[in-house]
Design brief:
Chain lengths: ~675, ~130
Amino acid sequence: MTGQPATSRGGWTGLQVSSNGAAANGVTTELISILDTIDVPIVVVRRDRTMAAFNQAAADALGLSLPDIGRTLRDISVLARVPRLEQYCAEVITGGVESRIDFRDGEAWFVVRISPYARGGDETAGTVLTFTDLTAFRAAIDEAIYERECTKAILNTVADPLVVVGADQRVQSGNRSFYTMFGVSPDPTEPTSVYELGNGALDSAPVRTQLQAAVATLRLENLREVLADTHAFQPVEVDQVVTAKGERTLIVDSRPLSFPGHSERRALVRFQDITARKQAEAAKDLRSEEELRRSEAFLAEGQRLSSTGSFSWKVATDEITWSEQLYRIYEVEIGVPVTLDAIRARVHPEDLTLLESMFEQAREGTNDLEWQYRLLMPDRSITYLHAVAHATRDQDGQLEYIAAVQDVTGRRMSEEALATARSKLTNVARVTSLGVLTASIAHEVNQPLSGIITNAGTCLRMLDANPPNLEGARETARRTIRDGMRASDVVTRLRALFSRDEYRLESLDLNEVTREVIALTLSDLQRNRVVLQSELAKDLPAITGDRVQLQQVILNLLRNASDAMVDVDERPRQLLVRTEREDVDRVRVSVRDAGVGVAPQNVDKLLDAFYTTKPDGMGIGLSISRSIIERHHGRLWAEGNDGPGATFSFSIPSGPASVPDAALR
Amino acid sequence: MTGNRSLVSIVDDDESVRESLPDLLRQFGFAAEAFPSAEAFLASDVVSETGCLLLDIAMPGMSGPDLQQELTRHRQKIPIVFITGLGDTESVRPRLLARGAVECLVKPFSEAALLDAVRTALRRPHSGPVTAT
């Protein structure tokens, strides 16, 4: 190591001692110096198995020293440990062929090379042992082995199958998961082709492309191709791969794998089992499909229940989509393509102008549109529609309207029916309230008219007699005039009723007014087996009012009372009409019946228009009565009796001019 | 006078009818007598002499149709001409005619209509069968 012979710790004396003396001393010294610089222990052994010499490296590495020279190998402890060294040396000397022995000394590993050497003639003089230190090399190999085992252990814990395939696309080495999954075992003599794996499922064009790209010899010219073919290294999804775990869906991902100094191309193929994920996705798809279906069903049902359809209209292309309900509303077969002309054909001719103006507004991009129109159906019936449209932009930024169309026919019909019913009711109210009165008044008018005609006829006949019965004629003429006046009276009252201008305010005795009404209705009451009783106060002050109107009110109360007792059979149908003073300045008229009565909770409603306890009644009379009484500054009310039935009363102020003329207009 | 039913009886609660009708009928040569109510007529002694009964429909107490039924019950087949001031007779008229009434006159009626009805009534055999439904 030092390179200085003077300080050599090698043992060369054994050689110097040998024959041939000092002849070559200069050279020998130079050679020894060179040998000492070699960092490989060298030991020279004679035929007799004694050590002849050693260099400095041998002294350093094997611990040889000068006294060891001349000793046999078995006596030098370090050399004695080299297995069968003496035997090998003998064989080398005999055979003249070099031999090697692995030798481990403590932590150090050596390869001992045993080579024959000759001196002078042909006879082999002995052997030269060179000790190559393999310790570092062995450590490196051990390290590599260790690393490999670690990698193997790690790879074996990876769930994804991994395999290295050769250029022939046959399996070279795989992890445990690979062998388990595909049910193959490592077979170096007859490696399995990748395309046989999974019952041939991997034998597909995409997998072949990918694998071939991965193992292709990378040359500059095809490197470009491979890199350009970007999808070559794209993972490929393969399903229905038959494995030990059944049919699986795998993602196959091949990557080129190269080792420095190895020309053969390999590919590392990774299989990713996505079966569970796919199933979960499929289940999720199924779920969302189900949810979609359900919400569509909700929508359809909602549209059906609310008679509301919807449509979308792409203005630029006039592409129109209808919901099923809208097809039903238009009575068009579901699925038939919708065109603007088809819509125009169904829209009521009178609403076409409106429709065109809506189209116009829509094309101008009006944000929100709302309109009502009608359809003329094939059976000539009319459907009323209420549409609301909202402008949106589709994915391409094109104007599109989303609209809801409600069939409001039912609502319109009932509105119209209600309006008709209202006007009918108003009419009925007038006719009924007047009808009740005029039926009685007609009787009153017809009586005197009948008298007039009869008397006039009689009068003529008396005058025509021979001799003329002048006295009789005079009498009948007088009766004619009287009956005429009577009829005129009734007519005047009728006119007062029909025409407010002919209104007559007069000072009235309510007793008299009441008596007249009783006289008018008596026959009706009797027909209904009503027992009428009247208690008219003697000291009743006069009131100011309209006779006919007040009579109408009393008439109404009497008829109501009579009607209320129609079904009363178990007790007398008693009706009491009473007039009396109320306080000092009011007069009250009350009509008490023994009928079905009025429940306390309904008392207030009684006077409302349209409320009635009568099955065929309309309750209008009372509301008119109330307004008449209120115009007389009075009030009308109802109350249940202690016994059966109810009492209807009104009271109005007494005295002159208690009602200003204007109030009655 | 029994057996000679030429008398025209009038039952009406309206005084002007009671005053005028008998005079007119007498001018035509009929014997006539008026009563203010059905009860008064039944109580009178002319029921059996009456060959024609001019009968108001709506009256206090016993009505015209009530009297008609009452007479039928007593086997008094007096031909009846109803007279009424009520406008709406369409509903009662067929019923009254079905029960045997000769006619139903609505006030005011003409002399001709009255005479036609009275003469028809008087010609009708008062003891003959009464069609009933």
